[in-house]
Amino acid sequence: MKKSSIVLLFLLCFNMGCTMWGYETLEEAVQSQWDSHIKVVNQDEEKKIVYYLDQNQHVVGVYEYKNEKYFYNNEQSKGMRFSSEKGLPFYIAYDHFEGSGDIVYGAISSDNHVVDNFVIQYKNGETQKINAKNNTFITVLPEHVNKERFMSEVKEVYGYDKQGNVIETWYD
Fold this sequence. Notes:
Blueprint: H1 3-21, H2 26-31, E1 38-44, E2 49-54, E3 57-66, E4 69-72, E5 78-80, E6 90-97, E7 101-108, E8 117-122, E9 127-131, E10 136-140, H3 150-153, E11 154-160, E12 166-171
Antiparallel strand pairs: 1-2, 2-3, 3-4, 3-5, 6-7, 7-10, 8-9, 8-11, 11-12
């Protein structure tokens, strides 16, 4: 066997090995799917949901963790860019992720404010309070909220700082 063939075989096996045997960190697993630099900003360890930034795009996807290794592919990834003409950019979204369930997620984009928690008020009177991480949130859709009409079910969403001051409000 030629030396170049052995090197090619080694590189192919090494590359396949990382995919087959996973990654040490979630960030490495997600980065393996992208050419541009990504940054993991939030994750739900129970539901195996990761929220990360790819340049100016916010992306949410499903990961696996088994045998102390992380695995990720972009099959269920949902990405969004958002802005605002007045106030801070703020978005909220809902998606069903196979293996993780019905997930609500969102963010306030700001370099000057740190969100401590988000509060979602639904039109049916239900309220969810979610701890923020890096100005983002991930939570489970409440049972009594109609997922087919999710956006019309949301009354208002507030982002609060540590002192309880409203940083920004999203409303329908």
